Structure formats: C-alpha cells, structure tokens
C-alpha cells in the first residue's frame, strides 16, 4: 500500500441521495460475466426506485436495447447523479469520468495481467497494461471502490484505494433456468463421461492445460470420455491456433469445440457434464464455477487468484497443475459415487450463502453510503518511508537475501518489508502490516498458488501495483525477480530506487539500465551486516541514525 494517501476526501461530500444511478462499462457483451452483472445491477437499482441506465462505448447487437452511448453520459449527468464505473480492461473513459457531474464509484472486476498475452497478442497485452494505468488514474475521480473478491480488493488497497471493500457478486440464478437444447443433449449423452469447460479462449484460461488434463484422463482412467469446450475459438488467432495444434499433437479422441453457445445449448452442456474443469491462472471472480455448482456438476479447479475464494471450500481445488494428478481427481469423482454426492452437496451449501434475495440486500447495504452521498472518512497521510521488496521472504526467511532485506528494514525508521505469501489462502485478505520482532512485514497474495521448485516466487499483481504506488525510497531485494522487471521502468522519475541480486538470478537489461550503479551483487559468503549498512545509507535520504 502506498505510504501517502492518494484519496481525495473532499470529493463527493454532498449528503443528498442520488436521484439516478447509472453504470459505465467499456463494452456491454451478451452472455459474459461482466455484461450479465451490469444488466442485473441495473434491474436491482430500478427495483430500489432509482432511474438507471447502462452507458458503454461498444456493445453487442443483442444488447442494443440495453445501452446508451458513453459520450452521452456527460450530457445526461447532474449533480444528484451517481455513476458506477466498471473496470476490467482499457476503456479510455477516464477523461469522461473526470469531467462528468455527480458522484462516482469504482466496481473493479480485476485486470488480467499483461504477461499472459505477451508473445500471442500485443494489442491485448498493451490493453491490460494501460488498464492498470487507468486504475491508478481513477483514484482521483471516485469516492468509493468495491471489488468482487478479497483477491481484487487487495490490489485496490495496494493501488491507493484505502476504503475498498468486497461487494457481493449478485447472481441472477433464474437466468440459468433455461431448458436444455434437446438436439445437443441427445448428441452428447451417449454414454461418454463429459468434461466441460466454459469461457473465453484466452491464454489466462489455460485451455492448453485443460487439454493436457483431459488427455491424461482419457488415456489413464476413462477411454470413453469427451471434452466439451463452450467458447469461441478462432483458428486465425495465435493462441487459438496453438491450442488446436496441441490437440493434434496430443491426439485425444472426442474433443468438441462448440464455439459460442446460446443459453439452451449451455444448459445442455451442463446437464450432460460429469465434471467441470478449470485450469485458469487468473480470475477476479469465477462465475462459471458457481454456475456449475448451481447445476449440480462437481467442479475441479486449479487454485489460482480468486478461484479458491469463489469456490468457498466446495468442489475440489487443486494446487497442482500436473495433468496426471488433476486427471486423477476427475477419475475419483466418476468412480466414487459417494464422494461425488458429498462434493455436490458441499457445492449446494456453498451456494446457500449466495441466496439471490439476501445477496441483493447485502449489495444494497454496501452501496448505500455511496448512493446517499456519504464521503469516506479522511485518511491521514504519512511521510515517505523506505520499502524493501523481497518476494521470497515469506517462503525462505532464512535465505541470505531474506536476511539482508530484514537487516536493511531494521536499520531504517518506519521502513517495511514487502513479500509474497507462501501460497494462496482460502480467503484472501487485503494486505495488512504485521510485526515480526522489530520488522514490519506486509504480505501480498500470489497469482499462482505455490512457489516453484527453484525458489522463484510466483507473480503477484497486487504487489506489482503496490510497488508502482510507493512514494518513498525503494529497494528490490531480488532485482532479478519478475516484480522488479515489470515495475522498475514505470516508477515515478524521482523515486530513489536500488537493487540487490544474486548470481543465480541476475537482473535483465531493463533493470540494469534503470538502476545503473545502484545495483549490488549478493555473492556467496558476503558479509550481510556491512552490505545492509551500505544499502541503508543509500536509501536513508533523511539522514536518520541507523539502529544497528
């Protein structure tokens, strides 16, 4: 979290209730999670007595009657108008938000990290990068912020939204009660075990891992099986083409790419499925997981990002991406009817906490301070303190780099050590500072569930965002780690930044170019005490006496 509060407590100080509550989204699509949520929220707002419209820059033809052009919002908004800004990809709508009258709040769906698209789609990778820039820009124009998971709230907190909180994901369960398409159901209910995946075919969903798991399942456990993929696949797109090529290479039987399906076809897929499989590496909230639970299909999911939180202890969440191990989970669900029944029942209990009426009420209660015009309490600002970023500290606190990081922090007043949690928690919490002796430690949730065998820490979107928002001196205790590579060139020009690296993990050319002579090498056997003192002097621009 940044050391200086960036929250403008003077914004939105009006105490009158909103006369109209509208929503702004870059694109309104039919059938995707964001589009469904936006339309359902509009219906809730109207049911609570507010005038409510959806504004977007682009929309599907099927959504034409649900949307107004985004540029019209500045004309339509008044002082008593409230706007919910949905953010998940580059929108180019920050200037519109800035100049529009009325109060504004942010609903953050999370932004897929750009690294997933590097090498396959430069346009989308850049859009993800710019979307995180926009996330920082929006701070100055909103009075409240919510996300749909603790995992996403953690990033909002790191980005300088101090009062961000979780907004319950209000699911319109009735929308799933569509009779199955009879023809498709008859086609796939032929005695095969049907493994289902639903979603966009993008690199973060790891459809290639779904293929590998299914291939292992078919060859090791159930030869009479089928993989159903409900999601558009374009053979001309680089990633999609690589997925099709992998299918040919692996050679499993009965892999069916259904493309985009309508509601009846999707119902047929779920009605015919023996299991739902997700190997996604990044989810701000996983609606298809809940849909599978609602339809009584047992879920097997890789526990990355907000997936464990969405699952809520139900289904089977795995921390392994080994195809044979995950295939074994699919097999045991099929072969053990008693276990399958327990899993399905646990999923039903998970959904009980998401009862449509009670969740709608919780959403209303969460939004009410914003709708009534209450401003969040002002947050006291703090002076710029030193931040030491050591991603591997939590996993290996006794490693030389970790000991060095702790020694530097302990020498500087108000300094803190930022690290990546050892693994994803069942319920992620916004990063809070903890004391370990005299050391102030702040832990951030990783995007991936475990550290690699070589000790390399997994990426953490919230840590990367937090680093970009630091206002004081910064030390990368691990200048060869991904967090340094992705953030060092995007720090403010006046940031005092240094780095330490180990021979086994050297910094890349970009980090070397930015840090120059402010790079130190931690060679085996080097005296940590003297190096810590040298680094503390480099970072301590205030000239404070060193503790030791």
UniProtKB/TrEMBL annotation:
Question: Keyword set for this entry?
Answer: Transferase
Q: Where is the Glycosyl transferase family domain?
A: 195-350
Annotated Gene3D superfamilies: Glycogen Phosphorylase B (3.40.50.2000)
The record's InterPro entries line, in alphabetical order, gives: Glyco_trans_1
This one is known as Group 1 glycosyl transferase
Q: Which organism is it from?
A: Corallococcus coralloides (strain ATCC 25202 / DSM 2259 / NBRC 100086 / M2)
Output one GO BP term. Answer: lipopolysaccharide biosynthetic process
| GO molecular function terms noted in the UniProt entry | glycosyltransferase activity
Claim: Transferase is one of the keywords in the record: yes
């Amino acid at each position: 979290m940044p050391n200086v509060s960036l929250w403008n407590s003077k914004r939105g100080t009006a105490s009158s209730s909103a006369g109209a509550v509208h929503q702004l989204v870059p694109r309104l699509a039919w059938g995707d999670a964001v589009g469904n949520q936006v339309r359902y929220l509009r219906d809730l707002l109207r049911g609570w007595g507010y005038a409510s419209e959806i504004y977007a820059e682009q929309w599907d033809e099927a959504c034409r009657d649900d949307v107004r052009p985004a540029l019209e919002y500045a004309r339509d908004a008044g002082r008593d108008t409230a706007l919910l800004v949905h953010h998940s990809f580059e929108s180019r709508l920050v200037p519109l938000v800035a100049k529009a009258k009325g109060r504004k709040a942010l609903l953050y769906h999370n932004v897929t990290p750009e690294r997933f698209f590097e090498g396959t789609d430069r346009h989308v990778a850049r859009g993800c990068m710019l979307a995180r820039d926009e996330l920082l820009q929006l701070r100055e124009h909103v009075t409240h912020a919510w996300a749909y998971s603790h995992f996403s709230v953690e990033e909002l907190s790191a980005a300088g939204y101090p009062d961000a909180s979780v907004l319950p994901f209000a699911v319109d369960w009735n929308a799933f009660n569509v009779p199955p398409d009879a023809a498709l159901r008859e086609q796939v209910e032929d005695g095969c075990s049907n493994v289902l995946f639903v979603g966009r075919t993008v690199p973060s969903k790891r459809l290639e891992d779904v293929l590998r798991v299914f291939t292992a399942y078919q060859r090791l456990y159930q030869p009479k099986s089928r993989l159903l993929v409900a999601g558009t696949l374009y053979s001309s797109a680089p990633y999609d083409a690589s997925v099709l090529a992998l299918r040919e290479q692996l050679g499993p039987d009965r892999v069916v790419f259904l493309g985009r399906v309508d509601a009846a076809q999707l119902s047929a897929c779920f009605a015919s499925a023996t299991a739902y499989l997700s190997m996604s590496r990044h989810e701000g909230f996983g609606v298809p997981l809940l849909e599978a639970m609602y339809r009584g299909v047992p879920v097997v999911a890789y526990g990355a990002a907000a997936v464990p939180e969405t699952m809520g202890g139900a289904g089977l969440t795995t921390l392994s991406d080994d195809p044979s191990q995950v295939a074994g989970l699919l097999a045991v669900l099929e072969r053990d009817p008693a276990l399958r029944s327990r899993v399905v029942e646990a999923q039903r209990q998970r959904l009980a906490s998401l009862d449509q009426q009670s969740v709608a009420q919780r959403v209303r209660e969460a939004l009410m301070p914003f709708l009534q015009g209450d401003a969040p309490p002002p947050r006291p600002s703090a002076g710029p303190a030193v931040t030491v970023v050591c991603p591997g500290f939590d996993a290996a606190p006794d490693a030389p780099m970790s000991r060095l990081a702790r020694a530097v922090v302990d020498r500087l007043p108000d300094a803190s050590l930022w690290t990546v949690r050892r693994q994803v928690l069942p319920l992620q919490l916004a990063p809070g500072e903890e004391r370990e002796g005299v050391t102030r430690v702040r832990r951030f949730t990783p995007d991936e569930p475990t550290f690699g065998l070589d000790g390399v820490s997994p990426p953490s979107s919230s840590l990367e965002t937090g680093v970009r928002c630091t206002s004081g001196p910064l030390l990368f205790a691990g200048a060869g780690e991904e967090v340094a590579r992705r953030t060092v060139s995007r720090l403010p020009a006046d940031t005092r930044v240094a780095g330490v690296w180990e021979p086994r993990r050297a910094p890349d050319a970009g980090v070397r170019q930015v840090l120059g002579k402010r790079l130190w090498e931690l060679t085996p056997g080097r005296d940590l005490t003297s190096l810590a003192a040298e680094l503390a002097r480099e970072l301590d621009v205030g000239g404070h006496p060193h503790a030791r």
